[in-house]
Amino acid sequence: MLQNALLLSSSSSSSGGGVMMIVYLVIIVVFFYFFFIRPQRKEQKEKDTMLSSLEVGDSVLTTAGFYGIVIDITDDTVIVEFGNNKNCRIPMQKSAIVQIEKPQDAAAVAEDKSEDKKDEKKEDKKTK
Q1: Residues 2 and 29 in one domain
Q2: What is the CATH number of the domain that holds 93?
Q3: What is the C-alpha separation between 30 and 17, in angstroms, rounded?
Q4: Does 68 reside within a domain?
């Protein structure tokens, strides 16, 4: 009878350990999801939306660090023109593009900078 009681107590404690093991595994899976899988999916979505907004005439930055202008777009490839030389046109995959700058965005940034310089000149005149 004492042996049966010991067996029952040991079996109940081992089933509790199994439940704790499952709880730990669930916590680890949730941790990996929120810190590794979810951010990677979010980043991939942002890259996909960026590449879908790619148009001819956009200025791009490639993974190699080269700046160029998009000349032609097909399904998976893009022809990019580098530098002032019109003969330097290279086809590359869309996935090799890291950053896109629209021409109107570049013009707006340049306009803002010129306004800032004008404001600085006015302030310099006032201080003199």
Answers
A1: yes
A2: 2.30.30
A3: 20
A4: yes
How many residues are recorded in the chain? 128
pLDDT tens-digit map of 15-40: 678 899 999 999 999 999 999 999 99
How many structural domains does the chain have? 2
Residues 101 and 61 grouped into a single domain: yes
Ranges of beta strands (E only) in the chain are 59-62, 67-73, 77-82, 89-93, 97-101
Residues whose CB falls within 8 Å of the CB of residue 69, separated by 6 or more in sequence, listed in order: 57, 58, 59, 60, 80, 81
Higher pLDDT, 115 or 10: 115
pTM above 0.70, yes or no: no
- By the 8 A CB rule, do 69 and 81 touch? yes
